[in-house]
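Two proteins follow. First one:
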Amino acid sequence: MENYFSNLPAWVSLLFIPTFPITIYIISQIIKRGGIDAGLSQKQVNNIQLSIGGFFTIYLFYTFLLSTTGLLSENTLPPRVLLFTAIPLLLVLLGFIFNKPLYWKILDKIPLESLIKIHIFRFVGVFFLIGVYYKTLPVHFAVIAGFGDIVTAIGAIFVSRWVNEQKPWSKKATLIWNIFGLADIVSVIISAILTTKNSLENNTQSVIEITKFPFVWIPAFAPAVIIFLHISVFKKLKRDASI
C-alpha cells in the first residue's frame, strides 16, 4: 500500500506541524495591529482576522487531503504540488489581495520591522536539512532550500532590529535582505523543477518527500506567502519613501 505520509521520524513531523498555524496566527496579529492603526473598527478587524484564519485553515486542510489521497505523489513536470497549491495561492494573493484598497490602507500602517520579522518562520528550512540527514531529499536541492531559508531568517532578526532602532543604513539593509530573500525562494522553486526534471530523465532521487503530509505544507504555503511578503516589503519601502 502506498504511503502518503512522511518517511521522517514521527518526532520530526510533530515538531513541524505547529509551524504554519503559528505563522498564520502571527500574520493575522500583525494585520490586526495595522488595521487598528488604520482606523478600522474592532468589528472590521475581527472579521479580517477570522477571514485570514478561516481561509488558511481550509487551505491547509485542502492540501492535507491532496497529499494524503496521493494526488500529489506522482513525479510529474511541473510538480503537481505547484500546480494545485502554490500557484493558485499566489494568484489569489497577487491577483485579489493586491487589488483591494483595504490591503494598501493596512499596509501603510504596518511597521516595516513587523513585515520583516515574519520571515523568522523561515527557520523551517532546517527541515530540509533534516531530510538530507535521513536521506529523504536530494542533497543539492535541500541544501539550497535549507540554508537559503535559514540565512534569510537570521537576516530578518538583525534587519528588523536595525529598522526598529532607525539605524541610518537600515533601509538599504532591508532592500538587500529583501532581494536576497526573494531570490532565494525563486531559486528553490527553480531547483525543485530542475530536480524533478532530472529525476524523470535519469531516475534519480526526486523531491516527492515534500508532497507528503505534513511537509507538503512547505511547498503549498511557503513560496506563495513568501513572495507576497517580499513584494509587500518592496511596496512598503517605496510608499514610505514617498511620504
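Second one, unrelated to the first:
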Amino acid sequence: MLRRSALTLFTAAGLVMSTALTVPAVASTPATAAAYPTTSVKVSDGAGSYISGTLTWYNRSVDFTGTLKSVGCRRAWYSVFDGYANPLGARSSSTHCNTVTSVPATLPADVVGGGTYVGVCLDDANGKPVTSCGVYFRP
C-alpha cells in the first residue's frame, strides 16, 4: 500500500491551485454601455385622441418617440423638469387633424444627470390641454 505524507498532498494541491490561477481565462466579451432607461407613455382624452410612445432618458436630454392619434385637431406637448420642478425644456408638435402621425421630440435637459420627470399633454388646436397631462418619472 502506498502512503503519501500530508506535506506531499498539500504540495500537490498547491501546485494544482497555482497552475489554475496562472492559466489565462477564456476571453470574454468586452463590456458594453448599459442601455438608456425608457418609460412608456400613454395620454388619452376619452374621445379617441391619444399620445402613445416611449421616453428615452439621456444624461442631458430626453427623447420622445411615438404617435399622436387626433380626433378633431390635437397636438402633443412635452416638458422636462429637474428634481425641484424647475422646467428644463419644452417642445410641441404641430397641430394634426383627424390623423395618426409620428410626433418625435428631443427635450433639452442640460443639467447634470438630465431631467427627473416629463409632462406629456394632449392639447387642442389652440394649445389648451384637453385632458390631464401625464407625468412620467425617470426610472
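SUMMARY FIELD: The radius of gyration is 28 Å. Helices lie at 6-22.
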